[in-house]
Amino acid sequence: MGQTLSIGDLARATGVKATTIRWYEAEGLLPAPARTEGGHRAYGEAHLGRLGFIRHARELGFPMPAIRELLDLASHPERDCATAHGVATAQIAAIDAKLRRLQALRGELARVAEACGGGRAGECLILEVLADHQHGHCTDPLHAEAGREGV
Amino acid sequence: MGQTLSIGDLARATGVKATTIRWYEAEGLLPAPARTEGGHRAYGEAHLGRLGFIRHARELGFPMPAIRELLDLASHPERDCATAHGVATAQIAAIDAKLRRLQALRGELARVAEACGGGRAGECLILEVLADHQHGHCTDPLHAEAGREGV
DNA sequence: ATGGGACCTCTAGCGACTGGAGGTTCAAGC
DNA sequence: GCTTGAACCTCCAGTCGCTAGAGGTCCCAT
C-alpha cells in the first residue's frame, strides 16, 4: 500500500495528458506532489481522486473558476452544498444559452446555404447574403446575450 | 463623393470595434487603407462592404480560414460557387456536432443537479458524482468527436 | 554499461480578439 | 489663432485551457 504513481501512471489512469497535469499543478488545481530523488513527481491516491474530479467537471463543461469552487467545497464536507447547486444550475443556464444561439445560427445558415443553386461565384446567393450589409449591425438580444464565444 | 471614413465611422457603421478592425488589417483580412497626413486610417466604401461581409460571416460562426476563403471567392466572380456551398455545409455540420454534444452535456448535467436534495457538502450528490472516478476515462464517440472546444 | 523511453523545466503558440499605456492628431468652440 | 478633449496612433500583454517543442536528465530493463 501507499506506493506512488508517476505522472504517466496518472495520465493513463485518468485520460488527462501529462502536460495538462503539470499545468493543473502550476495553476494550483492539483497540489504539488512529492518528488523522487531525481525530481520526478510521485503521486498518491488522493491526487488520483482529485484529478478524476477535475476531469469529470471539465467533461461537463464547467469553467475553471467553477471547478475551483467545487473542489474547495468538496474538501470542506461541513459546508452547505447549496453552492454546488448554484454552480451546476449556472452551468446549465450557460449551456442553454449556447444551445439557443447555436440553433438560431443553424437555422439561418441552412436557409442561406439552401438559397444558392450553384453556378458562378458572381451570382452566388451565399456570397450575396454575406455581402449585404444593409441590415445594419445586429442588436437583437439573442446575439448580444452570447457574444463572441467561439461558436 | 468618395469622402473617406475614419476607423470610428467604420466601427459605428458595422458594429465592429476599432481595435478589431485594426486587428483584421494586421491579419490581412481587410486591406490597409490610405492614411491622412497625420497617420489616421482613411477608409472608402469598399472597406465598408468588405468589413460588413466579414462581420456577417463571423455572426454565422464561420471560422477565420473559412472567411478568408469566402472573401477570396467573393472577389473572383468568375469562379465556381461550389466552394461557398462546401464552406457553408461544413459549417452546418460543425454546428450540428456542437449541438449534439451540448445537448448530451445538458442532459447529464440536469440529471446530476437534480440528484442532490441539499444539505451538507459531505453528502452532496453533485460532488459525489464528480468525485467518482470509477467510470474510468471516457472513450465514447460523442465526447471524442467534439473534443475540448470551449463548450 | 547502455539504450531508449519517460520524465524534467521553460517558453511559445493556438483563435479571435480585448484592454491598457503612452503618445499624437483632429475638429469644434471661443 | 488657440485650446481642449475626443478620437486616433503603435506596441504589448492578457484572455481560456491547454498543447507542442527544445534541450536536457532520470529510470529501468537488458
UniProtKB/TrEMBL annotation, chains A, B:
The keyword Iron does not apply. Transmembrane segments: none annotated. The keyword Glycoprotein does not apply. Signal peptide: none annotated. InterPro entries: DNA-bd_dom_put_sf, MerR-type_HTH_dom, MerR_fam. Keywords: DNA-binding. One of its GO terms (molecular function) is DNA-binding transcription factor activity. SMART domains: HTH_MERR. Residues 4-73 form the HTH merR-type domain. Gene3D superfamilies: 1.10.1660.10. PANTHER family: HTH-TYPE TRANSCRIPTIONAL REGULATOR ZNTR, REDOX-CYCLING DRUG-SENSING TRANSCRIPTIONAL ACTIVATOR SOXR. This is Helix-turn-helix domain-containing protein. It comes from Falsiroseomonas algicola.
